[in-house]
Automatic annotation (TrEMBL):
Gene3D superfamilies (alphabetical): Enolpyruvate transferase domain (3.65.10.10)
Pfam families: EPSP_synthase (PF00275)
Role played: Catalyzes the transfer of the enolpyruvyl moiety of phosphoenolpyruvate (PEP) to the 5-hydroxyl of shikimate-3-phosphate (S3P) to produce enolpyruvyl shikimate-3-phosphate and inorganic phosphate.
Source organism, top-level taxon: Bacteria
Reactions catalysed, as given in the entry: 3-phosphoshikimate + phosphoenolpyruvate = 5-O-(1-carboxyvinyl)-3-phosphoshikimate + phosphate
Protein name: 3-phosphoshikimate 1-carboxyvinyltransferase
Organism field: Paraconexibacter algicola
SUPFAM superfamilies linked to this entry: EPT/RTPC-like
Transferase among keywords: yes
UniProt: phosphoenolpyruvate binding residues: 27, 99, 128, 174, 357, 399
Residue ranges occupied by any Enolpyruvate transferase domain in the UniProt entry: 13-433
Residues that hold 3-phosphoshikimate according to the record: 27-28, 32, 172, 174, 326, 353
Amino acid sequence: MTAGKGTTVRFDPAGRLKGSIVPPADKSISHRAAMLGGMATEPVVIRNYLEAADTTSTLDAMGTLGAIVQRGPDEIVVRGTGLRESSEVDGPIDVGNAGTLMRLLPGLLASQEGRSYTLDGDASIRKRPVDRVAIPLREMGASIEATDERYPPFTITGARLRGIEYTLPVASAQVKSCVLFAGLTADGPTTVVEPVPSRDHTERMLAAAGVSLHREGDRITVTNADELVLDTITVPGDPSSAAFAIAAGVLVPKSRLLVKGSGANWTRTGFVRILQRMGGVVLGELEDPAGDGQIPGVEPITDLDVAHGSLVGTVVEPHEVPLAIDELPLVALLGCFAEGETVVRGAEELRFKESDRIALVVDGLRGLGAEIEATEDGFVVTGTGGLRGGTIESHGDHRLAMLGAVAGLASREGVTVVGMDAAAVSYPTFTEDITALLRR
Ligand code: S3P
């Protein structure tokens, strides 16, 4: 592998991958830890916070809203302002590239009675819809004005909120979390009805913070809280980042890898289950789904033992999509190497990520020799037993950059990734970590 000029990096076919890798800290949990720290009144200690562009945006935003953030060598301490006392802010709050920050923070801002806040971000953020959070927050009593009714920059004016029952029109953990945050100050209970389960970190963390929160089937109900009582939050490794090494280990012949300390929360391990179904060798202790009415109090972690092996195609059904949403580009790559067809259905949400991930994954992999077709709500890949290689452009999307890198390692001719620096959004040490597995 040779680093090219600027942000262009070449990933040559790898002989084998060997050794162990520790994925970076979980991005979703880090965002939530910083936000909950800002919403608490007592200091919150965060261990293993993700030091990456997206999660730095969140810490900065909480600082702008009045939290005191102290960075130590091993931990971050956040001293928050409570649920209703965020500071007034001059000018827009910059969310950078962070969709999770942009969609969750409004839940807190809606609770700031009489104060207005504007959120804005980079060019990709300005194309991502916020009406999905504006609709329920308006119903709760907040005012929201968005560009073209739908996009950032957008302004939220807080109010005394009322509890609502809200059925999510799309399975989105971000929208669910935003409404639950707003429910913390609302008069009366707030219920989110979630047609299909999505990541449940917010529920686990709020329950751990002493909030009255219950799940009955697909209904999650929160009642208002005076304060959040959090002490220490330890962030596990990110299964979505680990997925790149897992895919590389399965695809590159003769590889054997240990992925250490990855989150094993059932709502985040859909990718591993899909891969196992395709015949991939990935062994580890994954969490089982929680029983009705239960909210697990912890985030489980596991080590995963990964080995190269042949794959067969599979069909990813709509109910599996939220459990593997950020890993679906990797499912497309696995499909290129699998026998038969790999189909992903019910994943139109991919079009609203950091890029249109249906269009760009299909174009990007096709440019590397894949037989892949886009559909309205996913893609169909015909496995050809391998991938030629070539050049792929990240379009500023971190997951596309890392997809290109893994494709290169597993390809016949290697892949040049243009815009590899995008990986810093979630995984700043990705290239070094993957390279270390080659050198052993
Ligand atoms: C996230 C939820 C998912 C995911 C995103 C992070 C979260 O988005 O794609 O990367 O932290 O809640 P949606 O909830 O919009 O599907």
